[in-house]
Write a structure and sequence with these properties.
This protein is mostly helical. It has helices spanning about 15-35, 40-50, 50-60, 60-75, 85-100, 105-115, 120-150, 155-175, 180-195. Helix 5 (about 85-100) runs antiparallel to helix 7. The longest helix has 28 residues, at about 120-150. The radius of gyration is 19 Å and the shape is elongated.
């Protein structure tokens, strides 16, 4: 099998794992503070207290750091909920997304990552992989709802989940309006009602 040669794609153990953790923490801090334009590998190495050569050899460029940071975030994200109802699961998903986007560090970090994805293909591919991982993790909520008869057979799980998060990201990136509990509940409820009505049928 061909080894993935994407910068930062190797998953090491031991000391190398600790280096990766320190570097990704420093990279995330810089992204949150200064955006993608301020993500300098030399500064990352200094903050992480590791050799500059190590950072350049493994991650090569700022986009490589963004890619590995997103991979690490996907690996450590919370698993999907199982409340016993689609409405409950989607509300849990909406709350998780909103909590991430409103976190003082994570919210700024996501803005920087999204901006990076508009400028760099490597960052864009990494962002797509991150969302693919999260959609795959949460899709069983919709599949289970189909099995329980809550929503029509053939409902597209990814379309349902995207309908939950889309209005939350719109507020983050466009209007800047607060992501309060009313907005969170409205996003989950709208997606639930649309799914129940068959809006997200794959052949629809």
């Amino acid at each position: 099998m061909t080894q993935d040669t994407t910068p930062g794609s190797i998953r090491p153990g031991g000391r190398t794992a600790r280096v990766r953790e320190a570097v990704l923490r420093a990279a995330g801090d810089l992204l949150a503070e200064h955006g993608f334009a301020g993500l300098d590998l030399t500064e990352v190495a200094a903050r992480a207290e590791v050799g500059k050569t190590t950072v350049y050899r493994r991650w090569r460029a700022p986009a490589g750091l963004v890619a590995d940071l997103l991979a690490e975030m996907a690996e450590t994200s919370l698993p999907h909920s199982d409340t016993g109802s689609l409405r409950g699961d989607l509300l849990a998903n909406a709350r998780l997304v909103a909590a991430t986007l409103t976190d003082p560090r994570q919210g700024r970090l996501f803005r920087a990552v999204i901006a990076a994805a508009t400028l760099d293909d490597t960052a864009a591919e990494a962002l797509h992989r991150f969302y693919d991982t999260r959609l795959t993790e949460w899709s069983p909520c919709v599949t289970a709802a189909t099995a329980r008869g809550e929503i029509p057979s053939g409902t597209d799980p990814r379309a349902v989940l995207a309908a939950v998060s889309a209005p939350l990201y719109y507020r983050l990136l466009n209007t800047g309006d607060p992501l309060d509990e009313h907005v969170i509940k409205a996003a989950a409820e709208a997606a639930t009602l649309a799914a129940t009505a068959g809006v997200f049928l794959k052949d629809g």
